[in-house]
């Protein structure tokens, strides 16, 4: 259970079978950093090209195709005092022909991040929001493993391998389960957001560089078709597709599989439970593939007497 | 501010320009009852045909096309001890070709509702869920006004006029704002659910007859294009369409309009606020039109210093 | 086989259970006229409100719910010399945020129709298209029967009952088969186009009033779930829904049913035939419900030795 | 204008920045062969893994990012006498829950291809289609250039770079225009179909190995955002996305750009022309990204006096 400290000196704008920057053992922890979506680091310097540059990939020695890689986010925290967002709601999120005006020329707005106070505020004078402090809710917008078939997939989009899901629920304390397609799994991460609404409808959260600590564990005898996650309050499955309807299909099918095949619920109970207690979160409706998250509260599982195997 | 007690003796399976059963004044309260989605009443007798039969319509004397009708749900509570659900997740909610098996012949499952204890439990022996008690969360699946153009629209679906939105957030204490298309507005209601998950993915909540008390108020100088709602914790806009993506567009456009044009936020603040604090709920992904709900927490509005006009 | 001449004096902007203007016998022919989408008649006078006003409905004495109504379009021809189109491609047909500029203030463009020469030409000076003559291809944009459940559905949209399908293939010589939901079937028609492209992407064809002759025949022992049609070159099934993907599903399912259950092809042949010879036409991608048409060439059926029962 | 004869000895199942197998000059012609979608060659031997293996890539010396690569298909012809199809319509092409039965255990059906007679016939005894001969319409299902951002994209799907579009209109005599993202362009090709219906709804055409001759020409001063094509009868633009609606948007926007910015039509004429004369073809509704083709007949362009620059 070693702890590795890794300082990145190059980045990738695809998730693919890139040379690993570090190979760890299952159960090891990595402390590293990520740049923001435009390639700016902790010091505010642009150190790589824009487009969600990823730190990594990190290989796990034991991981083989068909395994599951568990990624526990031990710590996610911005590491500088300035973030930025876009200023307009994306046209495809509004009714066709509706133009969202902004009374500014600027494509980007700056936000002040108070790392000690744990708050974020819009640094845009002459607006009602200016200076109002909001609690930080740091999350990772983009992470995942190398995809199948030798693909290298843009960090603008997402799929069964993870990728640019831009889901505000991927926070510290959550463990994500990803399918392993290549030896070593090759985990990439980046695109930290200080805060973000559902859907990432302006095309960004508050984009900022992060310090990240995570733990990688290989599960040899489990299988997932889409990303799953275990959080303190719920279990989650993730469907990445367009339209959102297809994301619903992937995420719900994966959750039904989890409840029935993996957690042993009978068919009637699994479907009755989902029918009456399922929750959906919209990850993003901005990226080429949208992200829909299917959730079951752990309280519900507890009441039914379903126990989760160790997730991390 | 009269209180009217109305006992229905006929029902409608469209929302349309039907003869009103009662005409009230703006601000009046109505106490009435609804049958379940298959037309069964409080006594368990089928009193009308199936297909979401509606109680009403109720006319409001002051309502004219172009006004807004506010409907405050003062009390929503089941009035019998047996509800039912379907037993399978709808095929269009799962991956194409995925068949959700059930180990029962029954299309419907019965649930026991404890009106005094305020709980509901699956009455299906030999299943893990059998007998587990869950808190009641009563909601109305279908309500709305007569649509425009003289249309009569099936209570299976929904639109700008409301209808079969099957959103679990339409609970007691919420005030819904609907566009008025015809003189009197003509408010219909029905399809009560003792509980329901997001999406209504088995095609039902726990379907049951209800006692309902609601208050109807006409706002002469407001305009809404899609249903809006004010709850204790958030404000909501509703988009009814397929695919879900189009529901996102309608609901987000309506919310942007609310924040900017009606509540007076500047364009940068309105979009920054939505970008970083918006929440989406999936109403239903079962009916012909899906329902997507766009929400802003009232805490967020409070912090920005935006005050809501009286909603009810 | 009587021929009825009917001169309309009122119109409907919903398809619904309206009082029939005429009741005919199965096999009878009706000669009548339709106004344009804005309610202007042959003389250029506005005689009713805009929004696809329909002539009819026409009842057929023999028609009962569960039957099929065959409508043969014997003659479709404009009856005046001026038509009009909108001037912009609808924003939802272009990439979000793409604005289709026009170098005119006018929302509508006028077209000259030469009824004798059988041509149509854009009457918009200072444009490249001005004065170029194109052959007339007259078609009906909107027609159908009263829908089920007592609904009255706007003539802006479509469904299993037909409606505003805006499909350029509904021309003279085609026989359309519609499900019957109410006694008499109640056939409505209107919204003639002198020409129209696939998809009706500017929101109109060349809109114009029409003279129409059609023949109504009831088939007591057939069933259709969606409109079908028999043309000189192909058979067609129609799916009306959003997104287009769902239109594909409805139309393809209906065609598979036709080939297998109704025309007696074995399952392997029906699917192999569709897989390798099916054709799809985009009816409209403008209206609330889109229209997708699934076609099989009659040459293909002939080669397989499948004979069509008399369609009309 | 050299002619190169290339015999492949390895294949790729992604379109990516792979080492070119041959570098040619702009204007050169290549004669080569492709294996079928499962990796079987002319002799019926499996020579590589399944999943649409591609021949190539071929580099063009002059091609730089930002240019356009014109690919003229000079000859497309199967080179063996056996092809195969799947036997079921894909479940996502039919109504959810509709199961397309087949009265065979076989997942694949064999077709006989008569190369001399130019016909194809289903070799499945005891079916109505068995032995009926149909004219060959050879087309390429998958081809394209290396995508942007260093991506390697599965040959199961498609995008702005081309890929698995499975469009029956990509036949001999057509010239396709592709955006160039990497030096040399890197053209890949494969997945030949002896015939195929619109939509590729059984998931295959008649899959077979091909002999292919094509000519690659670089256009330094043109730009395309999506694949365009020039055929003998029409010009075409291609949108690859889900849902089909988004494919419509991409293809229509690209065609509007072509007519207005590249061919010089005024805005009113371009939109009036598309509104009344556009045609859409469904490429595929089977693959992860669907393909929609927007077409304008060359007759229409001729009548307007628009001349195409040399396409090849």
Draw up the topology in text.
Four copies of one chain form a homotetramer.
Chain A: E1 3-5, E2 14-15, E3 22-24, E4 29-34, E5 55-60, E6 68-78, E7 82-86, E8 108-114, E9 119-122, E10 134-135, E11 139-145, E12 153-154, E13 158-159, E14 162-164, E15 175-179, E16 187-193, E17 210-219, E18 228-230, E19 234-241, H1 244-262, H2 267-277, E20 279-282, E21 290-297, H3 298-304
Largest interface: A-B, 69 and 69 residues
Which stretches of chain A are poorly predicted, pLDDT < 50 over at least 5 residues? Answer: none
CATH topology of the largest domain in chain A: Jelly Rolls
How many distinct helices of chain A?
3
Q: Domains counted in the coordinates of chain A: how many? A: 3
Strand order of the largest sheet of chain A: 1-4-17-6-15-18-19-21-20
Shape of chain A: globular
CATH architecture of the largest domain in chain A: Sandwich
Oligomeric grouping of the chains: homotetramer
Structural class computed from helices and strand pairing of chain A? mainly beta
Helix content of chain A: 10-25%
Main beta-sheet annotation of chain A: 9 strands, mixed
**Total beta strands of chain A:** 21
CATH class of the largest domain in chain A: Mainly Beta
Radius of gyration of chain A: 19 Å
Mean pLDDT of chain A: 96
The amount of beta strand of chain A, in percent, is: 25-35%
* String of helices and strands of chain A: EEEEEEEEEEEEEEEEEEEHHEEH
In CATH terms, the superfamily of the largest domain in chain A is: Acetamidase/Formamidase-like domains
């Amino acid at each position: 259970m070693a702890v590795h400290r890794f300082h990145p000196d190059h980045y990738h704008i695809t998730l693919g079978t890139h040379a690993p920057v570090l190979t760890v053992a299952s159960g090891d922890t990595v402390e590293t950093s990520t740049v923001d979506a435009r390639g700016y680091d902790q010091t505010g310097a642009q150190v790589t090209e824009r487009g969600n540059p990823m730190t990594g990939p990190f290989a796990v020695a034991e991981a083989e195709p068909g395994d599951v890689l568990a990624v526990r986010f031990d710590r996610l925290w911005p590491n500088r005092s300035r973030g930025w967002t876009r200023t307009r709601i994306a046209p495809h999120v509004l009714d066709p022909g509706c133009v969202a005006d902004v009374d500014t020329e600027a494509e980007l707005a700056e936000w002040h991040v108070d790392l000690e106070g744990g708050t974020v505020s819009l640094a845009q004078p002459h607006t009602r929001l200016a200076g109002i402090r909001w609690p930080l809710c740091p999350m990772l917008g983009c992470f995942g493993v190398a995809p199948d078939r030798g693909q290298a997939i843009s960090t603008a989009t997402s799929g069964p391998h993870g990728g640019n899901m831009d889901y505000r629920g991927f926070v510290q304390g959550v463990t994500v389960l990803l399918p392993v397609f290549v030896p070593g799994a090759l985990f990439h991460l980046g695109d930290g957001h200080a805060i973000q609404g559902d859907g990432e409808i302006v095309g960004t959260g508050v984009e900022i560089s992060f310090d990240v600590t995570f733990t990688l564990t290989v599960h040899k005898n489990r299988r997932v078709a889409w990303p799953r996650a275990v959080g303190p309050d719920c279990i989650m499955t993730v469907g990445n597709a367009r339209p959102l309807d297809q994301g619903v299909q992937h995420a719900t099918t994966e959750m039904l599989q989890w409840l029935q095949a993996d957690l042993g619920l009978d068919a009637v109970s699994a479907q009755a439970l989902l029918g009456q207690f399922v929750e959906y979160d919209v990850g993003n409706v901005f990226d080429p593939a949208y992200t829909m998250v299917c959730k079951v509260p752990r309280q519900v599982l507890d009441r039914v007497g379903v126990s989760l195997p160790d997730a991390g």
